[in-house]
């Protein structure tokens, strides 16, 4: 049995690992000549870490994951602590620590683990077809690939998605711009082992520790879509958006490198009614494109892969296995997309009175409510 996997990102590589565990041959096709990650880092919460271990790549998380032992919210203007608490109760409750990691390092490690020479790069899908016996993919360079089924892990701009849904979809602008990158850890910005977030005005500035003495940082600002900003104005833009914010934030702005800082207009897509059509299945962002507001985008792709593998371990018929995968994932990924959307709106001042009420509630937060919310999301995954 042979699977064609479209996309060699986190979802595609996870899917390949899961299918390989079930004795299925995988041919992986990636559209670009060289993968350049969108985003500097990724929050891999405990459910994602469990999935990586299940897929045989737990050592990657051990190597790349930062020591994030506590969590804190700070007032964006004054820098005073609104709440801070240990994440150890969460780790004890779910059995695995969260691992914020460099996205580039994670993707590189997954490619190396599989074997880069076993991946077909610069293969952009132009069209696909399926019959009762298998699937065929035609690429822009004129080449053709055939397999028994296809996993479309080709991202939020998926080419294959329309072949599953029967129509194209529009991405929805979530209403804010995100800047993200990596800087060397500096206690003038935040403690070395803490996820620290500064909030005010419906804006966010956040830092997380990752491996090699680095902070992953991001800035969020509610803005109209399509503003003409680029790397040449990046620091000036951030200074303007965060004028009068705490010196911790000003230090971060001064230390970031505009050449390695990403500016992204955040989008999501309304949840789909299906993930599978015959012998073609959507996985990762191709099947459930979400905002990053609950840190579950990458984790959801890893979960997809685990469930895909479990489906093939239980069903030897391809279409039955893929339908089982769909049935197991539809409700879960819908919940994650809508939960992230709700958090996005609350965090970014869509209804400012609700955002201000949230700020007020943080000042009396002991950590119990936040940890319980994280725990509920984590344990709802396929590995508990």
UniProtKB/TrEMBL annotation:
Molecular function (Gene Ontology), one example: FAD-dependent urate hydroxylase activity
Keyword set, alphabetical order: FAD, Flavoprotein, Monooxygenase, NAD, Oxidoreductase, Purine metabolism
Lineage of the organism: Bacteria, Pseudomonadati, Pseudomonadota, Gammaproteobacteria, Vibrionales
Protein family: Belongs to the FAD-dependent urate hydroxylase family.
Keyword Flavoprotein annotated: yes
InterPro entries per record: FAD-bd, FAD-dep_Monooxygenase_BioMet, FAD/NAD-bd_sf, HpxO
Pathway stated in the Swiss-Prot or TrEMBL entry: Purine metabolism; urate degradation
Protein name, UniProt field: FAD-dependent urate hydroxylase
Superkingdom assignment: Bacteria
Domain annotation FAD-binding: ranges: 2-337
Pfam families linked to this entry: FAD_binding_3
Catalytic activity, EC: 1.14.13.113
Reactions that this protein is recorded to catalyse: urate + NADH + O2 + H(+) = 5-hydroxyisourate + NAD(+) + H2O
Keyword Phosphoprotein: no
Cofactors demanded by this protein: FAD
